[in-house]
Amino acid sequence: MSLFKRMKLLLFLVSQMAIIAFFILLYPHYFKPPPPEEEPKPKPMHVLVLSSWRSGSSFVGQLFGQHPDVFYLMEPAWHVWMTFSQSSASRLHMAVRDLIRAVFLCDMSVFDAYMTPGPRLQSSLFMWETSRALCSPPACNVFLRNEIISQPQCKLMCSKEPFEVVEKACRSYSHVVLKEVRFFNLQVLYPLLRDPSLNLHIVHLVRDPRAVFKSREHTTLELSIDSNIVMGPEWKKSNKDQPYEVMQVICHSQLEIYKAVQSLPKALRQRYLLMRYEDLVRDPVRQTAQLYEFTGLKFLPHLQNWVHNITQGKGMGDHAFATNTRNARKVSEAWRWSLPHEKVSQIQELCGHTMNLLGYRLLKSKQEQKNLSLDVLSTWAPSKQDDQEG
Ligand SMILES: *[C@@H]1O[C@H](CO)[C@@H](O)[C@H](O)[C@H]1NC(C)=O
Ligand SMILES: *[C@@H]1O[C@H](CO)[C@@H](O)[C@H](O)[C@H]1NC(C)=O
Q: Ligand 1 pocket, 306 CB below 6 A?
């Protein structure tokens, strides 16, 4: 091979290498994929406040609902129950579960099945005005997102918004919190706990069955449709033991839920928090801090101020809070004077297991019932035991 040919070959090889080097070293710089438009949003948190009637769940709902990071709805499954008011709680369980799942994912088309056809407003939703999120942008532009909003004012100003704003509002929050009294076991919720598209956390709010019974006595008529669904259509309504039977079913379901949690794998058990209404009444600021911590919410200064105000009897709140903390406890234990001991002892017979497990002391006589230095909360508390387990 002549020198000239060798030079040509060398030149050829060098140029080829240059082209290869260009592709290896520079190509990625020229054809880098465009950066993502925005950071992927953290996965939303889904919180179910699981409770029963007259157990302070509206108040706990407010503690969540007034938080500026929370989209809150109170009792969305009310629509399911009122559509099928001749049915039973167990038959409606799955429909309620599926509705809750859709609402957690901000799919409000699920309400189509339970509302009359035609144009509807956000005010077609049961108790929509309890949701601060539906009283502020993007749902309603009258109030600010980060202020405490009064329900009557919201009802007055925001009731004409179209139904579509509900979904839009829901999608703009990091937390969706739903309050429900219409679940009677935990098994029905297992698929939601394991659902990879959800990040479900459960706050199980319980209250002393004797106080619940007393409160239900005042609201028998209001609760009658619900009570019939709890008991099912075969239930004999003429029975005078009716209130006790309903109470027994409620106590039993609280017990079943609590026991089912203990047999869950640890990773799932950590997504459950039991709270007694009585503990909340005695120390609202501390217990609220616990609720927020469990669900990854900041206890913002204006919320601390608000909760503090409520316990001082200022502003809105459950009637038990319309006074100072010491009196709040008195109100929450009013049944000890007003409920005859015969009734107390009948409830204790039906709900004894539940009461023992949840740390409510049984009162064995009229004297014990009226002796207020005898605390109804036993020193053992379910939450303390959970702490020890780690
Ligand atoms: C708390 O009460 C004070 C005094 O009544 C009032 O000025 C303040 O606005 C209240 N704060 C909240 C967040 O409700
Ligand atoms: C009330 O209960 C306390 C605490 O158990 C007890 O020491 C006291 O003797 C009781 N008082 C009456 C009048 O029974």
A: yes
Which structure tokens are listed for 11?
């030149």
Question: Is the Cβ atom of 308 under 6 angstroms away from ligand 1?
Answer: no
Ligand 1 atom at minimum distance from 302 CA? 13
The residue type found at 281 is V
The number of CA neighbours under 13 Å toward the Cβ of 70 is: 30
Cβ pair 162, 121 in contact under 8 A: yes
Asked whether 305 lines ligand 1 (CB < 6 A), one says yes
Cβ of 312 closer than 6 Å to ligand 2, yes or no, is no
Ligand 2 pocket: which of 372, 374, 375 to mutate (most atoms <8 Å of CB)? 374
Ligand 1 contact, 309 CB (< 6 A): yes
252: burial class by Cβ within 10 Å (0-12, 13-18, 19+)?
middle
Q: What is the pLDDT of residues 188-242, one digit of tens each?
A: 999 999 999 999 999 999 999 999 999 999 888 889 999 999 999 888 766 667 8
Query: Can you list the positions of beta strands (E) in the chain?
Result: 45-50, 70-74, 175-180, 200-206, 272-276
Dist. CA 154–CA 147, nearest whole Å:
12
Q: What is the pLDDT of residues 51-80, one digit of tens each?
A: 999 999 999 999 999 999 999 999 999 999
Torsion angle in degrees (nearest 10) through CA of 12, 15, 17, 22: -160
Measured CA distances, 385 to 51, 262, 274, 328, 359 (Å): 21, 11, 11, 26, 11
Cα of 314 vs centre of ligand 1, distance in Å, is 8
Give the strand pairing for 200-206 and 70-74: unpaired
